[in-house]
Structure formats: C-alpha cells, structure tokens
Amino acid sequence: MAVSISVVLLLLILAVIFMRNCALKISHALVCVLLGFFLAGSSMAPTIHSGLTATAELVSGLQP
C-alpha cells in the first residue's frame, strides 16, 4: 500500500506541474490517466467518490 500511495503522490505532482505549464501533451495526458487508475485502486477511492457524489448532488439542487 505504501508504494501505491507514493506513486499516486508522484503522479499527482507531475499532473499539477504539467497543467500549470499549459503544455499538456500526449505524454502528460498519459500521466493523468495513470494517476486516475492508481487513485481508483487506492484506499482514497471511496472518499473521492463520496466527495464527488456530494458535490454533484449539491450542484444539481441549485436553483437558477
């Protein structure tokens, strides 16, 4: 599990750097995809899923 968290953090840092440089290339997109796969397999996945679900419910409940 420690290796998985380390890989997730490394990929997250790389994705943030690539997005800040506004130079998202194919290789950078691959890093983002790998980050998603590693996040989905980590222990943080249920927390991320519940956070996204709560945010979606909040946004769908807003009245214009």
TrEMBL record:
Superkingdom as given in the UniProt entry: Bacteria
Protein name: DUF2304 family protein
Organism of this sequence: Streptomyces broussonetiae
